[in-house]
Amino acid sequence: MAITFYDLCGRDERLRFSPYCWRVRMVLAHKDISYAAVPWRFLEKDALAFANYDKVPVLIDGDTVVTDSFDIMRYLDMAYPDKPVLGEGVSYQRAHFFKLYVERSVTPVLFRIVALDLLAAIHPDDRAYFRETREARFGMRLEDVHNPEQGRSQLKQLLAPVRDQLRASAFLDGEAPSGADYLLFGSMMWAYTVSLERLVDTNDPVDEWFKRMLEVHNAVAGKAITIRDL
To answer: Alpha-carbon distance 158 to 162, whole Å?
Structure first.
């Protein structure tokens, strides 16, 4: 039975922008695993009742249901051990640390760059919910969160160690992409998918890396529908 996973969609069902779902998409492509992606929207909580979860991604593999993107990455490594992305022991701990760095530092700053673009990209029926929940999280209106110039300045500082790493290797995990690359790329792809805002300077090592990531695994990300296509 093919794997199924629930994947966040926007105002156009083909627009898939969740950073966490993009992690899963890239790992499935990395492992060359076939799957079916089910489009899901923020208010369709009942559709995930079977998983006792209210957000995506949710992955179904036969009788196994896995929630949370990092747990899904871990599950795919255990169930499909060829081409591991997180590894074991020290490698796994380092990947987990990098996950926390991306989620706690990078993703919130990316949100500042694209907040209003993201609001426009989601389905109209979801916008009131999105605004209410995100404004509660940030403690301010989305219009006040949205500050692309400040966000880019903060992102440049945050990505300094990433930039230095990419001067030494084509990908964060070496000469081919793996777990660390997919963790960061998921968030960068999220912003790129919904916004025309520049994230990093042209010819920055991070920009060059992002372009390479769009082309890996038969350009699974590069061929994706973005706001540019709508």
So the answer is: 8
3-79 classified as CATH 3.40.30.10? yes
**Start-to-end Cα distance in the chain:** 33
Which tokens belong to 138?
A: 């940030």
Task: Mention the CATH class of domain 89-223.
Answer: mainly alpha
192, 226 contact by CB (below 8 A): yes
Compute CA 95 distance to the chain's CA centroid, rounded to the nearest angstrom.
15
User: Where do the structural domains in the chain lie, given as residue ranges?
Assistant: 3-79, 89-223
Mean pLDDT by groups of 10 residues along the chain of 230 residues: 92 98 98 97 97 97 97 98 97 98 98 98 98 97 98 98 98 98 98 98 96 98 97
pTM: 0.97
